[in-house]
Amino acid sequence: MGKTAFMFPGQGAQYVGMGKDFYEQIPVCRQMFDLAGKASGLDVVALCFEENEQINITEYTQIAMLTAEVAMLKAIEEKGLKPDVTAGLSLGEYGALAASGVMSAEDVFRIVRKRGIYMQEAVPDGGAMVAVLGLDTAVIEKICEETPGMVTIANYNCPGQIVITGEEDAAQAAVEKLTAAGAKRCVPLKVSGPFHSPLLTGAGEKLAKELENVEIRDIQIPYIANVTADYVKDKSEVKSLLEKQVSSSVRWQQTIERMIADGVDTFVEIGPGKTLSGFMRKINRDMKVYNVEKVEDLEKLAELV
Q: Which of 12, 19, 221, 263 has its CA 20 to 30 A from that of 188?
């Protein structure tokens, strides 16, 4: 029998009402929302469930998304299902940390609240992120390297979808070259900054100071880091990887390919939306993929327990 992986999405999939049915119907999920509120100093329940504009602002999006993800994770764990390996895209890596046992839920919530603030504060004027569709990865890398100014790859999402990040002028110059090189589309992303670029190094440094006060536990379930697309071998590596993650490329396609090479054939996406499932179809259509976004989705997982 093959292995099962839990995977957690990042920013962009959030919406008002995410996780509400879990909160209302499952006590352990309600506990996670309450814990997130205490750890972050925010009314996370209102942030997630009541109409507001903050939910799409990075410093609030991150804690909101993560709370929904961890609440859903706890509901799945109560059903008796544990993964063989776990990973998350960008912010979602903190969901993976919770699943792996490396950090307590309280610490994960506290750190992500700080991460969101530091990333928002670090955003320079004139940053941009652009999804590049339908162009070979090596071509994109070469064009980014040759373009004056700061522009680099933020996300290796899946074949045919790479996200670039950096200074607005440099990103626009790269887009012109990418279009000329044959990109099908270049889609500007509605984000508040050039995330996963060296322009965010300062945010990572602030996060590192915050992480000094966090207990890193033994790794109970193997997890793969965004920065390396490889297993974290020792808990002593965790803090430096999380610092680098803020300003480094997210190697999601490579992460999934690593899991598949190690015998994972079943993937459970935990959290709002189906972004990662969409990437999976382009990486390898032969994998079995489940989504847990609503309470009724838990029934689909019965065959995995």
A: 19
